[in-house]
Prior knowledge:
The structure holds 2 protein chains of 2 kinds. By secondary structure, chain A is mostly helical.
Amino acid sequence: MSDLVLSTTPLEVERERSAVGTLRLVQTACILVIALVIISPLFMLLVASLKDDRFQILADMGSFRAFWVSNPTLSNFAEVGNLSGELAYGRYLLNSLIILACTVGAGLIVNSMAGFVLAWGSLRGRALMLSVVIALYVIPQESIIMPLVIMVSRAGMTDTFTVQIVPWVASPLYIFLFYQFFAQLPKELFEAAEMDGASVFRIYRSIFLPLSLPALATVSILMGIEAWNQYLWPILVTQTDYARPIAVAIATFFGQDSIYWDRAMAASVLMMIPILALYLAFQRWFVSSFVGSAVKG
Amino acid sequence: MTLQQPALTATAALARPAQRKDKGRRDRGRLFQEIGMLAPAVVLLAIFLIVPFLLSFWTAMTNQPLVPRPTPVRFIGLTNFLRILKDDLFWTSLWNVSRFTFWILPVQCGLAFATALLLHQKLPFRNFFRGLFFLPAITSMVVVCVIWGTLFQYPTGPLNQVIGFLSGGSIQPIDWLGDPNWAMFSIVLLSAWQAYGFQMIVYLAGLQGIPDELYDAARIDGANAFQRFWHVTMPGLRPTHVFVLVITTIQAFKLYTQVAVLTQGGPKSSTETVVHYMVRTGFEEQKLGLASAVSVILFLIVLVIALLQRQLLRRFDV
């Protein structure tokens, strides 16, 4: 806004415009302050992971050097990214990736099939089953974990990948999300395919599933975050490094007296990358489909 | 059922014309397929959710130890519950999660709401900021603990430095995790930082759900910005508010990872939480029966909060 433009506009419009301008400025300033608060801890993590000297990291903490690295090195990543060795996080990372992929993969299939049958099936008592699913959602993971630990240890399943994957594949929340998504698709879609003689599975597989990309993306992100960040369950059911996920490995490491901050920071950065990639890949569909249904449901 | 059902359908089919018979066969095939598609979810939910849930009520009424003993497990009724209700540490943990909830609700939800209101405006780069603010929400709580564990360092950690700098040195360094008066509040700070992006997105969706016509109508009626906010935005967000507050409260009562990694319930039990108390009873003291009683109590708390949500939503006619 140049002076010339301002002087030619009527006084009221001019005043309103400058008020809106001031408001925008204040709003932008607020956003930038919030952004600073949100991003600076993450930025500090990234910077610290690039420093090789763990004593230097602690010494830098007290100054603005916490946000600056003069000679960045990837040696921490090389160290923790190994598949073997004392501080090798590569294998825990790999363990976590296996758990993530299997849980989400199986979860998408199992929950979407169930949601589809609840939405379009012809079984009697569908409404009742749906209410049961919604009711089950209230049970927190934390309050079934005690008996579940006894069950899996009696079955000799501790310290396996299976025990970290299978219990969390089917979930009332995701069945319900899929149900809601499928149920809002037009009835004609189902009827037309049925007239053509397609079986239920086929209608699900070739018509409804390809249309449910937003729901698949949402459930992938939510399940992915959940599987990736599991902490309580794996500490209870893993005793050795064999199937231990990275979250537990970092926490164990963190609890020791002499913390290798440099390595801990690098391992933490490595832990963020896969889930960030998953989120960036699917976020386009994430917001719209999840939030609408979650708030109403 | 297996013997009778096919016979019955077969006789029924005989009475029908040929075309009907074909359709009947297809219906039966369809039924089998539907059962087959539903079965994995039903079986998994039964084994890994319903059975342990029912078992937790049973275990809570026995003297079940973690490691099997030669003596048989005995049914002891409500003894475990009585013992827990007499344990001061349990009440401390309940009091602590209540304190946590009391702080996290305004800090986290307030911040999320304010940010959502800001990002709902036509600000430059708002999609970028939206993604940015969600970053902590996808960060594992363990990683968040590593980050904030360094920020909280006493006395020269970054947080203390920033506060000292902003206050011109008049505020003394705070022992964030080591001072019983501050430890829970520190946990609140890092938890709010981690999870608020999620709620911000929920609020943004809620804001987008309010029709523009309502704002236009209010404007024509001469409502100013504050009136539009109070009479259009706030009523339109009622279900969102209820959802966010309830989810946050339930999450708050399940507080565990932050405490387990950073403070182990200390100092002086000031960050002991219900789930941490449960895990300690079950796995360090090896008293699974007692721990199951805690888990039943936790379930009842969550149930009450969820029922409250339904009541509130019904009152608001959603």
